Amino acid sequence: NGDLQTVSSVQESQQRILRRLLTNPADYIWQPNYGAGLPAQIGQVTDEAATESLIRTQMYLEASVVQNPQPQVDFSTFFGGITANIRYIESDSNQPTTLSFSATA
Question: What is the full DSSP assignment across 19-68?
Answer without folding.
Answer: HHHHSPTTSSTT-TT----GGGGTTSPP-HHHHHHHHHHHHHTSTTB--S
